[in-house]
Every structure is written in structure tokens, then in C-alpha cells.
Amino acid sequence: MPELPEVETVRRGLKELIVGKExxxxxxxxxxxxxxxxxxxxxxxxxxxxxxxxxxxxxxLLIELSSEYTLVVHLKMTGQLVFVxxxxxxxxxxxxxxxxxxxxxxxxxxxxxFEKSSREIxxxxxxxxxxxxxxxxxxxxxxxxxxxxxxxxxxNDSLIGELPDKSTRVIIEFNDGSHLFFNDQRKFGxxxxxxxxxxxxxxxxxxxxxxxxxxxxxAEVLYERLQRRKNTTIKAAILDQTVLAGVGNIYADEGLWGxxxxxxxxxxxxxxxxxxxxxxxxxxVMLLAIEKGGSTDKNYVDAExxxxxxxxxxxxxxxxxxxxxxxxDVLIEKSKVAGRGxxxxxxxxxxx
DNA sequence: AAGGTTGTTGGTAT
DNA sequence: TATACCAACAACCT
Length: 352
Description:
DNA-binding
């Protein structure tokens, strides 16, 4: 479940790899929901554009384009992005005649139509279509370590296997022959093109709370923002993206365990000192996760295809039945708070 | 094999 | 109007 640290890991990795690259083609497979822009908008504002920056707000990834459009990506629960570099064996392939001038800026007055969803979005006529077979054959016959590869997001085997696979929703090909795959085994995630200037006006962007890792996000800011949800549980409050940005079920449980606060406690009953502890813990656990590569310790996949271990540093999340790290003879319990699976130590985190 | 899983939206209730 | 709560979404996993 990509949360802030996982999306930040995606951002950092992709920024290194795709800034400056020009898009040769983009293809949506099978699911209009995953990429609802019209064929026309894709041809006009994505194909032929180059990547100028990769940013993040909350759990949302913002891929900035030279066309003054932004590819906005939400991985939701099972989304992931995988970059696969051009095969050295194929590096001499012809650069398709995908040159396209985008001198005139896009008309920002008219937002792209998301209602019109095309079943398949392909590159403009004349650009080389992705040869799926070739890619698959290469991956099975020549060792994958020949290619630069980076993947992050939901940690499943699509990070390391042949792509595209059955979870692939969108394929973006760059002019140098490298590819970016958007995979999502469930179909909650999406990517959409917006005029860059419109991004701040997206409903989510208007109401989302402060970035917890920014310097101006002090314990005082968290305390004050929590007051708007004083009658709900502290877990529901920190999961609320309008209170603060980026916390999901994993880091909610980890942060609350760290601060020794019971998730079901009402916000109004959480002492200010506990809020300060929670502030410290949430930031620490998310920073640690970013250091570790966002819940997986191997996002850069090597030739052996080692899969990242999942949340091996969690102290409470999905550790029910295992000892609390602070109390060797007390087991982590599982319950339901805020409609979510919740993991607590019955000794550290007491409810009143 | 049916129920659990989760981020966000949107509906209903208070 | 604001806040609280929960079903719905999808498809794999246990």
C-alpha cells in the first residue's frame, strides 16, 4: 500500500531516470479507468513531450511535462511504477520519427475531457508501436541485468518480472527505447493528464493537509489541525488526508505504537505531550521508511531478481501474535479501528 | 472458499 | 454547514 514514503521512493528513483527523456508513445491497456484521457489529449500533450521534473504531494506523484501538462499519478493500494531501460542489445534500434514540435503552449482554458475515455490510447500515427513480443522474448532469453531497472510502489513480483504483464495498465515508451510501466493488480490507481496550471485546483489538492516532513510542519501544527477532528479517534484523524498528508494504515499503526497512543482514543483525550510524541514518531518512521526505500529494501532490482522484503522494520503493523518489541512476553493484538485493521501492544498502548 | 484487505470518494445520518 | 461513519470500488491473497 503505497503511502508517503513509498511514493517518495518512486519520485526519487524516477526523477533520476526519466527527467529529460522524450515520450515516444503511450498506450493504455484494457482499462479506461486507469488512464481516462482521450486519445487526442494524449497525442497532443503527452506524446512528444519531455519530462521536466517529478514531484510529489501527499501520496500523489506529479510528472511534469514540457507541454505544460502534468501526468498526475495515484497508486492507491496496489499500484507501482517500473522503469526498464533500453536493452543494450537493441540500443542501435532506429529512433522512430516521433519528433514532434510543441511550440505552442496548450490552451489551459479547456481542461482535457475525462469523460471521453478511449479503450486504447496509442501514440500518434507513425510512431513505432511497442513490440510487446520482443520485450518479452528479450527478458526471457537475455539476462535482465543488461538493463537498468527501477521499480517501486506495491511490492509484488511485477517489480521484477517480465513486463508488460497482466497487471500492466499503461506503457510509456521513451525515445531512447526505455519504458515506464504503470502496473496495478487491482484497478483503483490511475494516471491522468491535467494542464499543469490546473493541478492546484484539483479537489484533492485544495483540501489536502500539510506535508509532514516539511520543516514548517511542527508539533504545534499537528496539534492544531487535530482539533478539527476532536470527537473522532486519533487513528481516523491521522488517516484523514485533510489533517495531514500521506499517512496510511501502516504508518498510522507504526506511529501510534511508537508514541504509545491507543488508536481508538478520542482526539480530545490525547494529551498534548502525546501529540508531540506522535508527531515525532510519525516523522521518524516515515523518514526511516524513505531511507529504506519505502517499505521494501530493494527497489533497485538486481539480476537475481531479489524481491524486497515487505516492511521488515515494522514494529506493530501486521505483527499480530508476535512479541511487542518493548515487551518480549506481550503479543501484538489485532483489532479494527476507523474501519481498518489495527495493530497494538496491549501494554504500551492503553485505552484510558 | 468466503472473507479480509486498503485509499479515497460519496452517500447517509446526526 | 459541519462532522462522523461506512459502503463501494477490484481482485488477489489467505
